[in-house]
Amino acid sequence: MSVARSSPTEPGRGIGTAVLRLVFAAIFGVTGFLLGQQAYLHLISLHVASQFWQLAFVVAAPVVGAVIGVLLVPAAQVLFETELHAVERAIDRLAPGELVGGAVGLVTGLVIAFLVKSILFEFVAFAGPTGGYIAIALYLVLSIFAAFLGARVGAKQRVAIGRIAAPAASTAGGGEPKVLDTSVVIDGRVLDIVRSGFLEGPLLLPRFVLRELQLIADSADPLRRTRGRRGLEMLSTLQQTVPIEIVERDPEDIAQVDAKLVRLAQERGAKLVTNDYNLNRVAQVEGVAVLNINELANALKPVLLPGEELRVAVIREGREAHQGVGYLDDGTMIVIENGRRLIGETIDVAVTSALQTNAGRMIFARPKARA
Hints:
Blueprint: H1 11-44, H2 51-71, H3 73-92, H4 96-124, H5 129-155, H6 158-173, E1 178-180, H7 182-187, H8 189-196, E2 203-206, H9 207-217, H10 222-241, E3 244-247, H11 257-268, E4 271-274, H12 277-285, E5 290-292, H13 293-300, E6 309-313, E7 316-317, E8 324-327, E9 333-336, E10 346-357, E11 360-367
Parallel strand pairs: 1-2, 1-4, 2-3, 4-5, 9-11
Antiparallel strand pairs: 6-10, 7-8, 8-9, 10-11
């Protein structure tokens, strides 16, 4: 499954680059022209006595300044676009709650810096013009520091803001979003659940989960490689059934994929769809709702009461010396008393008891007496 990306040769991008270059050329050209005029008035005119050279420099200095300004445009544009792309990538990694918190904190910091400005200017006003320049420099430094600090502190409130915004977002989207885990993608049963209508709402696939799936598909281990490729094929089919949003958010302060999934679910107010038992428990501790497909499958298995009869093939020996083991069509394990001697046979058994474990349901039975 691939995600379309814009290329540098797209018409819209080319037009935007050309417009940006024209804007930069106008700004740098006018700035160079004005600096050339100032250089002539304050430097050149004081050292040139000839009227001819005075006239020549009054024309040449602004023109040379404008030309130098235009020549600096490509380098300035490259620097600007590089920094702009870096900011865009940083924003892509931020959650909506972080963006809102950072914006609120930035504005708060600037307001505080503005309120301090009047006190700052009064404090250095006694120094005359020099004090004014010092006050301007200090105000700029204070504004940058306050804005940066406010943005960082506000961004750290991402979870709280994300939870506040989550109900409105889920209502507007038609349902609560669900974050898909790697295990549930490889398992593949989520496709049938979605098709049956039991799982609805926006499906979110984090980019780091997709990368992990691609690494599994490229693994040297044949079994892992097969599972990874099956997961990618399932995603392609699932994408044709229901919209899947590729989430670029990747918390860089967290190394483990499970912790990243929990953080993303918290930020988006989403439920976590997984088959991983440990991730299930961690998410519940963190207050994240979990949809465990294994638990759903166990809940849908038919209830077998003591005394009910089944027909099962005994395929291997059990943990105890006298036990045999068979399986139902849904994968439920049947432990058969005195079934070791019957390995390889298909027999009728009577259920004696059932045990629910974390791995699933286990049925105990004994062979029926043969006529």
